[in-house]
Amino acid sequence: MNFPELIQSVFDDTLGPGQSLSLFRPELTLCATMIAILLARMILPRWKTSGFYLVLLGLTLALAFVFPWRWFAEGALPGQEIFTGLLAADRFSVALRGLLLLFTLLFVTFTQIAGRWAPEDGAEFFVLLLGAVLGMCLMVSANHVIVVLLGMEMASLPCYVLAGWQRDRRVSSEAALKYAVFGAAAAGILLFGMSLLAGALGSVHLPTMGRRLAELLQAGVDPAQLTALILGGLMVTVGVAFKLAAFPFHFWIPDVFEGATAEVAAFISVASKAAALGLLVRLAGAFVGVPDARQFLVVLVSLLAAVTCTFGNLAAYGQNNLKRLLAYSTIAHAGYMMMPVAAMIALAGGQGSPDAPLSEAQKAVAALLVYLGIYLFMNLAAFAGVAFMRNVAHSEDLRDYAGLVHSSPGFTVCMAIVMFSLLGIPPLSGFTAKWTIFLALVSAKLWTLLAIGVLNTVLSLFYYLRVVKVMTLDAPPADRAAPRIPLTSAAGAYFAMLTVPVVALFFLWGGLSRWADAAAQALFFTTFGP
Amino acid sequence: MPDFLTCLFSAVVFLPAAGALVLCFVPGRNTAAIKWFSLAVTAAVFLLTVWMALPATSPGSGQFDFGAAAMQNVVLHRWIPAFRVDYLLGVDGISFPLILLTSFLSLLALVAGWKIAKHVKAYCILFLLLETGMLGVFFSLDFFLFYVFWEVMLLPMYFLIGIWGGPRREYAAIKFFLFTLAGSVMILVAILMLYFNSDVRCLSPEQKAACHLADDAAVESDQPVRTFNLLALAELGQSPDSPFARETLWCGQSISWWAFLLLFIGFIIKLPAVPVHTWLPDAHVEAPTPISMILAGVLLKMGGYGILRICYPICPDAAYSLAWLVCGLGVLSMVYGAFAAMAQKDFKRLVAYSSVSHMGYVLLGIGVWSAVAANAYSTKFWSWAMSGAMFQMIAHGLSSAGMFFLVGVVYDRVHHRNLDQYGGLFARMPLYSGLSVGIFFAALGLPGLCGFIGEFWVVLGSWSYSAALAVVAASVVILTAGYILWTIQRVYLGPEYKGPHPEALTPITRREVAVAAPLLAFAILLGVYPQALFNYTSPTIDQTVHRLSDWARQHDQEQSLETEIEKPTPVDSP
User: What are the residue ranges spanned by the domains of chain A?
Assistant: First the structure.
């Protein structure tokens, strides 16, 4: 292929009937919004709204371009590679990008209501935020090693800055520094692992790497090559585990959450997790066609999930800072969310029901999407509650929540609903989330993981219940005025609004589950063909 | 427009929840209005269930059909089609008496708690939510729905004990929550296991119709059609080639065996049986009087109901092979509970342990599996024992709720429960003491009162299964008589009251009589005319026992065939 032909093919792929660019419109909109905010700030320096409405407009537009429900009609978007194989455009990426953008939309509204940003800082905050979201969108559609790295770095770097947003607070700077140092190390390890894999397999295109691996293992592989492969696989896992905050790469989360504002913590705990899980599904999905790799991955992911979940729940016991407590709860939930990925890997080869191996594996991914869809509201609500309380009581210490029910009953009821939902008992949507992943585990016959999962539900009872207990049963301290957050205030109304889906998604999860099922269809088109 | 039955059943289950929702918008200072409104809601629910208890005049009226053994008045609507979760409600001879008991005790408990002054609005909201959860458990025939209602009870109960309870309320509340949650996750795992191995394609069209499966289950499919329908799961579990018994899961035991064990542990935590009863004394003692009444009167029955409705019909083979465990735990609970009750110094704790002892009869009655004794497959004895267990559940619901209320009456006056400091109450509170002695004798099992019937039938039915168990069970009556008579002697008899606050021992009020008198009246009625209850329960119990013993006969025949095949055929030597 000579140079003009190459140019022509790239041109055709980008603008031609393949429509790479049109499927990339959400990301382009995000870029345009970032530029527009910076320009607006330059032209209108006194603009007090600090780009909030621009962000709102940009995100709404991007969400309209993703338009999650348009793609879920029968047969629409069967799955294709765009930009010459760099990105995978399928319903899974549409769904996850939709979730990410929806979350960001709710999140910027939340930051505006919680309002701790000085006006001159607002624009930068939103630009960094959108940059991170852009990276996350790339992560969930990654089909190529370069995009994996690019996406992870684009998602991480703004988060380091956001974590240190309160420049005048020592803990905030410390959090940012810790996050950046650990993040850089994890990225380096990931890069090293990727280069090992790419070198051993002779490709950087994920599905091709999977196929090469199958050929290589069939033809027989010498020990040195095998070592490189296993080492590469482990290193990549380390990199992803860091983003996921899986044990033993979780240690940054409590410190970062404690140092950063509750808003940033909410963003990291939901958006960053969702993107990392999307990436994990992509990476694992590329190799599930190879039986040996599958067995290796099932054990690896199951082990990580089990240990992460148990550790998060046990470590949350001793916490008195609510943000730290929620940090460990986030770790535990990351463990739960890795469980359906393990089930997906186990099922992808037909280890489960032999007649429909793929559809069962896709159902496991659908379980993950249901969990994410619910987790988004639950965890955002939990951190929103912490942020609103901080604004009123100037404290994130659990002791200062004592007897909150007497001064702000509505707020306390909502907070209790969120806590019980995180614990996962009916009739709240947290139960739906757990139920779907347990179903996936049974379907994959991962009994041990199931036992660990349900045991962890009992373990997590204590600390979630402790929050509720402090708010409702303990007497309010006499030496200070009780914090008041009436549901009629903006903060209270926003919090109540977030609690509505936490309850409603339990009763109406048929729709969410159908949506997730549709999103998971054609997920493995690159591995097994459409 | 939903049909009449849907409206009726949904009204019974969700009227309290709707009332709670309305109360959210009433200002908290109108305590009298809130109490009267809650009373009106519970009374309405009670009246609806009483109306349902009348003999059916026409089909579809929602009233009880006495001759029918099968599930009647079934309401079926789709809820989550993706997982085939249905809104499936229905009543039969096992669930309906318990529904009636629930609505009755809820009404009485609300009256019993009339004097509660702390956060009245929150109390009434939580109480009404609790009632919805309790009624939902007994109505639902879909395993998922059952589980949801089962868990819905947990949250209000935690707060009701934790906020309105006694000095150690927080400890008791979290202990209750922890035990119940541990039990529920076991039930959850069992649900998942059963769901994933169910396949309604195995059922014949007649069976499908009898199970009230949703329409789409009839469609031919090449994929397994899973179900949460409890009736369909029971049909599958009792079919000769049960999908739950087909393959071994772990440790050489089948899915059915493990599911039974998990469900059984989950339910005996609620029942409760020794050794998982330890939450009960704490929760019952610390809970406020009306909540103790609900705990003892209704919540404990859910364990027995779960075993009767779910464990036995769905996993008969495991129930068959583990009958020794069920009966053993039943007798152990009886003996242990009775001895523990005897050793108590706290009046309420004594009553709590007596519950452990009395619920042991339920476990023994359900589990005796007498039908297979001597290979006769006679259903008579087991049917007696199971009817006795069912009767014991209702009788204990009345007598234990009454006892907790009566303890509460004196506790309200003198603020202590130390048995050694009581005495001479007969002189100061004659009417109260009369009612008390009546209800305590009902718990003791005095012939002519309700407690006797249940215990008698259970012991009679268990004789043919194991004479030793029957003898032990019968002799527990002596222990029961011991601690109850001793209690009566220490509290009501004696020359005079020597404890603190003697001036507070005023005669029982009319409100208190209104709670205690109906309980005693029903205890006498059921003792004198037990047929009033057996009319409801017998057809369903007989049918359950018949089906299970048929199953056992078939099972044993297969077993003996298999052993014959395995035996080396004797070779005739020339």
Answer: 9-528
